[in-house]
């Protein structure tokens, strides 16, 4: 089955305001195929719409699950969360006349989230993850529910999802209740840049709010979509940071007049970690044509010489992080599961987010080490004791003004603070399981907290990367002032030019906050190194 369908942009009175300028865009197909991290990121960041699979067999299977569940209930069967209470209240039978009301009650009492709201990209990633899980065909939901979830994405009807309140099993109950409530016509959403009552928005789109069928509230909420959606975004940002750290290592080598020989391919063939070799190859390619200067220090300091070994840990971690995140993304992870082919109800624990929790706990450690690496390289560049003749603090001031100019002194201090905070936030969340809900949820994953922690570490590391980028470009330009014959390979010169276009050379001291904020935003959006991605980044 093709991975994308060409579809028309959503139409209708409300969508015309936002989407009419997109006559035809590539949609990500949901249903009957596996979704990738890059596709989730495309939905979340690049406004890619989704299209439910047109395969009749897939659509029939979804309907078959909902039909079987309805027949099963009519036959008098007991199904957890459908005609019983929730959690510890699973021993409480719900009378048939109240079964239809139960899903909405679930969304209401879970409306107690706190903390910052997820941003637009995070919200879209969460909805995409939930939609894909329900489209697996083991959740007993109707096709119309999948259609309305697709509408949330395609029309950018964004539930306001508080980031705090999930212990990661039974899935992301409280934050996902805001998605379920939006489908049912309750709570506020962001739409066309305004905070709106969702019932009014559905009317503008030509739909009535859904009356959730038995189990549909539970199917929407009892899963790992929040942690998984956030993990997809974290993966993309960590991937970009590894490439940026490699580029900055190469440029630091030029600025410090260091040795390209530290990245010789043979070194990495005899210690064959794939990620380490990959990082070294990036640095080596960036230094192509550079000859080491005789008479200089025989070995550069560890933050330069061992950079591939540090970056390589993250590269290798990303390989298995991808595996686990995409497995979770392409799974049925609510409870109970409805098997439409064998007509069985399976009570289990697929809502447990342990794989995402461990992946995010591990990734934040690896990313924080990138912050530490870049901060140490920056410390070398500003220090006249170690920077091989560059001006103190990378000041670009004329000699007559040198005494009152301090260049990147404060930037390095701030970078050190951001690095320390990133390192502090590497405490694993997954080991802090708490027994909740009358000891029914007595071992939980904390996967959503781990994912949020990882995003915070990424944010801090991207700030360090922005500081290091500005400083390293400044250092390289200062090196060229000292020796105009210094060879700067083409990829590095293009990078210098790109950065300088946004942040000019610092000759006289100036406040660099706006430069840092703008560059940090570009780094977070994975929008700095298009040459590494062939112009088609996720």
UniProtKB/TrEMBL annotation:
One short Pfam name that applies is Lyase_aromatic
CDD domains recorded: PAL-HAL
UniProt keyword annotations, A-Z: Isomerase
Q: Which GO terms describe its molecular function?
A: L-tyrosine 2,3-aminomutase activity
Q: Which SUPFAM superfamilies match?
A: L-aspartase-like
State the top-level EC class: isomerase
Q: Does the keyword Cell wall biogenesis/degradation apply?
A: no
UniProt-recorded name of the protein: MIO-dependent tyrosine 2,3-aminomutase
Q: What is its EC number?
A: 5.4.3.6
